[in-house]
Design brief:
Elements lengths: L16 H12 L3 H6 L1 H19 L41 E6 L10 E7 L2 E8 L4 H13 L1 H8 L2 H6 L1 E3 L17 H4 L4 E7 L1 H4 L4 H11 L1 H10 L5
Antiparallel strand pairs: 1-2, 2-3, 3-5, 4-5
Helix pairs in contact: 1-3
Length: about 240
């Protein structure tokens, strides 16, 4: 594979149409027999490119923060497993029909710690950052930081570069959280149960040969948002 020393500049794209073709086929044939017969496609067109993407990002994450990990190990690293956990689900389909790649904070305890994320699925492609489904104490600390530093939160939330690329998403409470008035000026932000920002992409975007570089630019645009969350949780950024 021909490369040069410039960030993300490679001779050909990391992701190709074959990745999305495999995922479409998997959605129509989500069973173990079909997957076993097509495992070579998965390794070649999905898992291999995803691990290559992580490996190419790893040397450059320091430009955002040295505390976030890009781990190209095939097991236990940045790439989520293709297998679904069906123990408590009515849907017993054994495989995920998307690719999930995470870049978590090095001191995060689990997948719900601050991190960056890439989601690849036919018809739904996006980058994201922040804290997804945190526990109660984590939510309390983030909400407390927003309430204590409202001007800084607004500057970050409404920053020109951030808003040009991201929208805040996730679930929210129906009412004010305990300890906050219903007329609090930042009530909608305090009601959030997730503190995540999402940048919508598409298949064409991730298939460009410049996508490694473009994903890193998205991460840099989210740096103030991630820094706010890390400081709220006592983590280095």
């Amino acid at each position: 594979m021909a490369t040069d020393s410039r960030e993300g500049n490679v001779a050909d794209p990391v992701f190709t149409p074959d990745l999305f073709a495999f995922l479409r086929d998997l959605a129509r044939n989500n069973d173990r027999v079909w997957f076993a017969e097509n495992r070579d496609r998965y390794e070649r067109d999905v898992k291999g490119p995803a691990l290559r993407f992580v490996a190419e990002l790893a040397p450059h994450f320091g430009k955002v923060s040295r505390h976030f990990r890009a781990d190209p190990r095939p097991v236990g690293g940045s790439l989520f497993r293709i297998h679904r956990d069906v123990r408590f689900s009515k849907d017993k389909s054994p495989y995920k029909t998307h690719v999930g790649i995470r870049f978590p904070h090095a001191k995060g305890r689990d997948v719900h710690a601050p991190g960056f994320y890439l989601h690849l699925e036919p018809g739904e492609v996006f980058a994201a950052c922040g804290v997804w489904h945190p526990d109660g104490p984590t939510l309390t600390r983030i909400r407390g930081s927003i309430a204590a530093r409202p001007d800084r939160w607004r500057r970050i939330r409404d920053g020109k570069r951030f808003r040009a690329r991201y929208r805040l998403g996730g679930d929210s409470l129906k009412r004010a959280p305990l300890g906050y008035d219903a007329d609090h000026p930042l009530l909608e932000d305090l009601k959030r149960k997730d503190y995540v920002a999402v940048a919508e992409l598409d298949e064409d975007a991730v298939r460009r040969k410049e996508f490694v570089k473009e994903f890193m630019a998205l991460c840099r645009d989210a740096e103030p948002f991630q820094r706010f969350l890390c400081e709220a949780l006592g983590l280095e950024m």
